[in-house]
């Protein structure tokens, strides 16, 4: 069977050519590369808001999600002149990379043309890549942890955030966990943000010791508990953005949700087949995140009080 002819998609004032549009990317229901592009068009405001001006690593699947995955930091070759980049430095290796810098929905659709399924942005922006403006709370369930336990921990997270005066924006991970994002003032570097995240994780563990742990080494963790992963705030550590599709055969999506949905939410319900209708009805539930910037200083005070130091990431 020959390749399907390319199609051209009009994305606002730009045109993006999608080659092999009928290639099946998600075998569970048969969604194609073109289905993936149309999904991202349907949530355009949301995915651009989640990625805007951030260095972005791409998870590419040239043969679909059951094939090889390519972790792409540097912008793929062949980008049109309107695709922008941001240069980031990797001190451990003393190297640089020019990563995708989304400013327009067409940038996202071009990345799909280059076989990108997942978008993994930094928690800092191009204006100063060394100063994060997003604190990420990752509720990572162990292999035998139930989702009911994740739900309970999310309730504790919400409680502590409210006491701090911080606004959390929850989303499904697109897999088995939950994420909560907090917009923060870009006043501190990665090490301080990670330390603040550790202080928060310790407080959640203190309040829910039967559900939570913060043990550094994976091999030492209880597989039935939720790890509050403060390490997702480490420099160059990324997780799938809001509205990012995940590289699973079922085409699940990391989807913003309301706090009051958490008791009944099932992350498996959010896919490229269902999220477009939800987005059309509810809009972007993270639309107000940029208006809710918060200072991490109280958490740094907790870290100093408890004499916390973040472990060496290596």
UniProtKB/TrEMBL annotation:
One example GO MF annotation: ligase activity
DNA ligase D polymerase domain location: 32-286
Keywords from the UniProt entry: Ligase
Entry annotated with the keyword Repeat: no
Keyword Zinc-finger in record: no
Gene3D superfamilies: DNA primase, PRIM domain
NCBIfam families: ligD_pol
Name of the protein in question: DNA ligase D
């Amino acid at each position: 069977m020959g390749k399907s002819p390319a199609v051209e998609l009009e994305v606002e004032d730009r045109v993006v050519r999608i080659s092999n549009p009928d290639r099946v990317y998600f075998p569970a229901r048969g969604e194609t590369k073109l289905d993936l592009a149309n999904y991202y068009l349907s949530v355009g405001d949301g995915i651009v808001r989640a990625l805007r001006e951030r260095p972005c690593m791409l998870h590419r699947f040239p043969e679909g999600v059951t094939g090889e995955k390519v972790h792409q930091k540097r912008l793929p070759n062949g980008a049109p002149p309107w695709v922008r980049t941001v240069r980031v430095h990797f001190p451990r290796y003393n190297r640089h990379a020019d990563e995708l810098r989304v400013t327009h929905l067409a940038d996202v659709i071009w990345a799909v043309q280059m076989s990108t399924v997942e978008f993994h942005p930094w928690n800092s922006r191009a204006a100063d890549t060394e100063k994060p403006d997003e604190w990420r709370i990752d509720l990572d369930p162990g292999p035998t942890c139930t989702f009911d336990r994740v739900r309970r921990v999310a309730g504790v997270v919400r409680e502590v955030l409210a006491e701090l005066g911080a606004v959390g924006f929850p989303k499904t991970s697109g897999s088995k966990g939950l994420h909560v994002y907090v917009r923060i003032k870009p006043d501190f570097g990665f090490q301080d943000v990670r330390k603040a995240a550790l202080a928060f994780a310790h407080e959640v563990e203190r309040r829910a010791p039967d559900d939570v742990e913060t043990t550094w080494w994976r091999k030492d963790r209880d597989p039935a508990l939720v790890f509050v992963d403060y390490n997702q705030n480490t420099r160059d550590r990324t997780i799938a953005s809001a509205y990012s599709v995940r590289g699973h055969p079922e085409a699940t999506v990391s989807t913003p949700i309301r706090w009051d949905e958490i008791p009944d939410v099932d992350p498996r319900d959010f896919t490229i087949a269902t999220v477009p209708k939800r987005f059309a009805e509810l809009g972007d539930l993270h639309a107000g995140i940029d208006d809710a910037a918060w200072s991490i200083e109280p958490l740094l005070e907790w870290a100093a009080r408890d004499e916390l130091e973040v472990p060496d990431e290596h």
